[in-house]
Each structure stands twice: as C-alpha cells, then as structure tokens.
Amino acid sequence: MLKIAIWGLGAMGAAIAERLRQAPDYEVLGFDIEPANIRDALAIGVIHGAFEPKEISEMPFDLVVIAVPPTETVAILQNLHTTNLIVDVASVKRPIMTATEHLPHFVGGHPMAGTDETGLNGRRKVMLEQARFFLIGEKSDRQKVAELLAPLGSQFETVTVQQHDALVALTSDATHLIADALVATLGANENTQKHEFVGPGFLDTTRIAAASPDLWTQILLNNRTATMAAVADFITELTRLNDLVANGDADQLLLALTNIQQIRRGLG
C-alpha cells in the first residue's frame, strides 16, 4: 500500500488526492489549515484519512504533495526536515527550489491544469488528464514522483528553473495581468450599457481574471522579474499592432493577423 500525504485541500490538492484515492493500493491522507476542508474531503471521499504536519518528519510516506500557494509553500518547506520524497505544485519555482536545498529528496512540480475556481469544489475543474506536469530535481527523484503520480494521467516533463519561470511568465503570469487590464479597462468605462456588449470572446479572454486575487498576488510577486519581461514583450507587440491600425496599413495588418492566426491554430 502506497502512503501519500496531500498538504492543502484546495482545488489542485483535492483534485490530485481524489485521483490517487481512486487508484488501487493507494492510501491518501490529507491536511488543510481549515479543519472544515478536511471534514468535507473525508465526507465526500476525496481522502481516506487525515494527518498532522508534524507526522511528515516523524513517519515514512511514499510521497508528500505540498499543494498550497507559493508563499505558504516556501514557508512550509523552509521549516520542514524530513527524508521523505516531496513534490510541490506551485506555478513559480525559483524561490521554492532555493528554500528546499536542505531537503534531500525534493522535486519542484507544476501541473499546467489550474482553474479560476478555488476550494474543494474547484477540484472538478482541474483537468490533470494529459496535462503537462513539469518536474525539477534529481533524476531518480523525478522518476519516482512521476511513477507515484501516474494515476493522474499527466504528461511529466523535465525542465530547468530558469526555463520554467520564464515561459510560465509568458504563457500564464503575463496573461493574467493582460486579462486583468482588459477587465479593469471595461470597469473604468463610464458607458452604462457596457455590460450589454460583453460577449463570449471577452469572457473567454478574461476568464483567468476571476481567479483568486490572493493566490495571484503571490504568484506574480514571486515571479516578478520574468513577468515584467514578458509584459514588456507584450507591450512591444501590442504597440506594433496598434501602429498598423493607426496607420491604416491594411496589407501589413492582414499579414500580421494571418501570422498570429497560424501560431494560435498551432497551439491546439
């Protein structure tokens, strides 16, 4: 029987716990700072039982999954002393890898399967099947994590800290700020009919702006350098496109939009 500890029963932690609990020969224990989340997770069958944080250092687990926001993840890991294999799921890696140099078996993880919904019920929107799950750490530890988390159905890939944080800043962190800016611009518009003109395109583009402000404040500040660089690149590209519109350059605008369309279609 494989013994797995899930520290944090929000959307991501609960989704991972539930998938592992459904697998044969897994015993999944959970902990959350909110006792009600533990009770609810037990009641609906997301976990088999509960554990106390001190047990991570006192008893063996096959894997400990830290599934809390980045700042809390750093605080937990800095004060953790154990030889158990540990993986986190936060979307920024540099501060976390720095905080875990004293842990002999730590793997930085990030499943690209987040949702704008929070809490235990948000687990239903976390799509782990076929999601890319990035891993950073020693080869033997990475392989063991991928093996233990195989029931998730994710695609495990190895990356470096620098590669991860730079690309996630481009595809996720800056994207969040862009969505925020679009919503803020709409909110500042004084036209009383503005909400009547919001269609599926605007809602799809800005979905992530509905996510937890507390979580995203932590993500953005913990990856600020890479995010600032990605936002600067976005501003450059937006300025280029805006100049084509301002100049009435139909041929170049059509060419630019056609190239962008091809890039987007290639993303799936």
From TrEMBL:
InterPro entries reported for this sequence: 6-PGluconate_DH-like_C_sf, NAD(P)-bd_dom_sf, PDH_C, PDH_N, Preph/Arog_dehydrog, Prephen_DH
Pathway assignment: Amino-acid biosynthesis
Sorted UniProt keywords: Oxidoreductase
Domain Prephenate/arogenate dehydrogenase span(s) in chain numbering: 2-268
One Pfam match: PDH_N
UniProt KW Oxidoreductase keyword: yes
Gene Ontology biological process terms from the UniProt entry: tyrosine biosynthetic process
PANTHER family found in the cross-reference section: PREPHENATE DEHYDROGENASE (PTHR21363), PREPHENATE DEHYDROGENASE [NADP(+)] (PTHR21363:SF0)
Protein family membership: Belongs to the prephenate/arogenate dehydrogenase family.
Protein name from the UniProt record: Prephenate dehydrogenase
Lineage per the UniProt record: Bacteria, Bacillati, Bacillota, Bacilli, Lactobacillales
